[in-house]
What does this fold into?
Amino acid sequence: MNFDKELDARGLNCPLPILRTKKSLGELASGQILKVSSTDPGSVKDMQAFANQTGNELLSTAENNGEFIFLMRKH
It folds into this structure.
């Protein structure tokens, strides 16, 4: 899937991936897609909760060799 901005949050622990995601989404226009890469296993639950709380849409979550990839659409 295409995305408009990419955020590398690998090596960061909670709550930094979410804080950086929030900041990056703030730089996007409504409907644009942010790709987030993280190595924090807690970010899976955190990203879903963040999407639910903010109204942003978590389009996909994938895991590959300990790296988590999220695609989120700004509301």
